[in-house]
Model the fold of this input.
Amino acid sequence: MAEIRPPAEVRYADELAAVAGADTAARPPGWKLSPRAVETYVMGSEAPVGGVAITPKYVGDRGLVQVAIATLASDRALMLIGEPGTAKSWLAEHLAAAISGTSALVVQGTAGTSEEHVKYSWNYAMLLADGPSERALVPSPVLRAMREGQCVRFEEVTRTTSEIQDSLISLLSEKQIAIPELGVQVAAQRGFNLIATANTRDRGVNEMSSALKRRFNFVTVPVVADLEQELAIVTRREAELRGDYQVGMAPPAELARVLVTMFQELRAGVTKDGKTKVKAPTSTLSTAEAISVLFQSGILAHGFGTGAVGAGELARTLVGALAKDGPDDLVVLREYAETVARTRPGTWKQLHAAVRDATGGKKRKTDEP
Done:
């Protein structure tokens, strides 16, 4: 059976192999590719490399990616920070895959993340039977990365407690983990580094200390502001998901444009022409959310409609996306439909009617049939 979501190094194995085969530049110790080759893999290439098309994994500022790569070649850890849904984890995964050949070494930060997730734990059956031994040791992804000289990802650092964050300070400073039960210290091999992510909008945030911040080089991954750029990201990623799940047909290009335009206007609180102010929802209308809405609309059309994605499916999916933080955001959606979508032609007017129906709004006398 096929995996639901193969890791980057599996999904893009052909591209990684092609880039590596053409890579003649010097590689930092422990790296699978040179910094320039990592950039080519992440940003894509206009011309095929070794007969293989290299697709862009991240669409955005090339300089941002270059700084991130340069950081990982130094003794500083990398912190990718920004609003939810700006592809921080996606970028971290592809950086790890290109540099170390694997993106599987990852710690997911939560309120329940313990020091065992960061350092090591024990197989207690073996521990009781034989005492502390290398066989009984269960290394964390961080410890494995240090031993093997690879990159480890630490997702959502600011969701962990201050004690866990403090444990990273000595780890990143000393580049070693002590295992007193075995009387050894594991020192990081060349190639080891840590790629962390943190959201600027998260209700579970624990602010990082200044001491921890100094161990990182911060790279801010911005919200995509350019309409055409975000539209390209959304349509390409939606097409990939649709292919993976073998669901339905491509949504109309105009419908995708309407969705991305709406998300950008709601995020900004004003229409593109600057003439109409709109309320911004509390929900995060990220690029990732737009991809999900468009993809889910296609599933609705495929399973319960004619197969063609229309304004009705889009409106119903939008309701689900905006209902996460309560009914107030649905009011924002209805107001946007009445003040903005209703005044625009074609697909916009269809969306207005569909949102009105999906949110239980009543038809007004001034509404067109």
About this structure: The first strand starts at residue 77 and ends at 82. The CA atoms of residues 255 and 310 lie 7 Å apart. The first helix runs from residue 8 to 11.
